[in-house]
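Record now logged for everyone:
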Amino acid sequence: MANNDDTYTTRKDLNEFTKNLIDQLNDVFNYTFHRFDDLEDKLVNIQTRLVNVENQLHMMKTDVSSVKKDTTIIPNIFEMLETDGEDIAQIKSRVADLEKGKTV
């Protein structure tokens, strides 16, 4: 009979262990699911922010384009800034000339 009692106890312990393991795995799954859900919400929020920044940059680019077309005080400033490899002294000289009313 002692052998049967040991087998029963072992099965009971195994069943209890299995139940606890399933409960713990369920808890881990629920935690992970909620964390992924939270992360998804955060990613959507970040994506929305990036779209807003992109829209603002586009608006700024449009504003700069309109300023570039409409400026009359220093008409060639944007072209000067866009010139590759131009010396800063040359740019300063051109700006000084423009301020004096000279055409560059």
Observations:
- Residues 38 and 88 are 51 Å apart (CA to CA).
- The chain has two domains: 1-70, 71-104.
- The helical segments are 2-70, 77-82, 88-99.
- The two ends are 111 Å apart (CA to CA).
